Amino acid sequence: MPQKHGDRGPERHPCGGLRRREFLKLAGAAGIGFAIPGSFDLLLGSANAATPLDLAVARGSSPSAIVRAAVEAMGGMGRFVSKGDVVVVKPNIGFDRVPEQAGCTNPEVVGEVVRLCMAAGAKKVKVFDRSVNDPRRCYVQSGIEPAAKAQGADVHFVDERRMKDAHIGGKVLTDWPLYGEVLDADKIINVPIAKHHGLAGLTMGIKNFMGVMGANRSRIHQRLDDCIVDLSLYLKPALTVLDAVRVLTANGPQGGNLKDVVKLDTVVVGTDQVAVDAYGATLFGLKGEDLGYVRIGAARGLGRSDLSKLTIRKISV
After folding, report:
1. What is the DSSP letter of 42?
2. Nearest 5°: phi and psi at 267?
3. Residue 241, strand partner residues
């Protein structure tokens, strides 16, 4: 039965959000919980466990450990970062929220991604976001600044003077100023949080790149799904690490009420932005095609949204 905008029950469109009790019911119905101990391959693409993975999904009590396990399952950070690379690690640091409120990427997830990049031989790792709230508070309250700096990252506020005009050449987004540090990087690793969003339904990997856009970002809201797909096709991250340690189920993207937060202790890692977001949708009891940007991204070749055709490894740490 198709979902309808404005429904009050658990099947309503994600723009309406889900209260904690509704979310937990959906999560249980979707099989979220990793009931099988240890690790196993979801044999959707091949029966051979040595087959290269499309996605690695790890769950456990330590955010750092599940990031390590998922990245290792994907081939290790050395597959994505080469010695001497300048790497941008792009989390969501948009709001003046502490980690428990799930408004920004989990700081331990960010710190571990930075550490893995440095261990792989990165020359420099840069961490930043164009925050919605005062960045001086967002960076500290989120815990991301101290966590990333502790692992050797260059953490700084986005300087509007360093925006550069970029010819994106998309179907809707043709030209837009983007942060020069992203354009000049050797590699980009996208590290979003999975959370409710009042306009997009959910914000995850594809939408996270709005944090490198200059100018007035609200101008793209009328064609938001098309525009963020255009942007993701242009930037092409080497890896996406989706933080679902805590997810915001309603009143996003800012949140603030702990009643809207559910702890899943999960990360989803992959090179396919569409696949990562499609899997992320299932954490909310949805399908990838319920989200406009996932449908558009799949149709335009950004990635694959049909999880039944992917090889996915689930790991319990």
Report:
1. E
2. -130, 150
3. 269
> Closest Cα to residue 144, out of 96, 73, 199, 74?
96
Rounded Cα gap, residues 252 and 258, in angstroms: 12
User: 143 and 177 in contact (C-beta within 8 Å)?
Assistant: no
- Kindly tell me the sign of the dihedral angle through the C-alpha atoms of 31, 281, 40, 107: negative
Radius of gyration of the chain (CA): 18
- The tokens for 267 are 């990360």
Q: Which amino acid is at 121?
A: G
Measured between alpha carbons, how far is 231 from 310 in angstroms, rounded to an integer?
24
Domains of the chain (ranges, CATH numbers): 14-316 (3.40.50.11440)
Query: For the segment 250-300, what is each residue's pLDDT rounded down to a tens digit?
Result: 998 999 999 999 999 999 999 999 999 999 999 999 999 999 999 999 999
Which amino acid is it at 163?
M
Q: What are 95-140's pLDDT values in tens digits?
A: 999 999 999 999 999 999 999 999 999 999 999 999 999 999 999 9
Q: Go through 276-288 and write b for each residue having 16 or more CB atoms within 10 A of its CB, e for each that does not.
A: bbbbbbbbbbbbb
Q: Which helix (H) or strand (E) holds 91?
A: strand 86-91
Collect all residues with Cβ–Cβ distance below 8 Å to 48 and sequence separation of at least 6. none
Instruction: Please give the biggest Cα pair distance in the chain.
Output: 52
- Sequence-distant (≥ 6) Cβ neighbours of residue 10 within 8 angstroms: 18, 22, 25, 26, 285
Residue pair 5/12 in contact (Cβ under 8 Å)? The answer is yes
Q: To 10 degrees, the CA torsion angle through 178, 211, 209, 197? A: -150
pTM > 0.90: yes or no: no
CA 243 to chain centroid, in Å, comes to 6
From residue 26, alpha-carbon distances to 36, 145, 287, 292, 299 in Å are 19, 34, 12, 21, 27
Strand (E) positions, 115-218?
Answer: 124-127, 154-155, 163-167, 175-179, 187-191, 193-197, 201-203
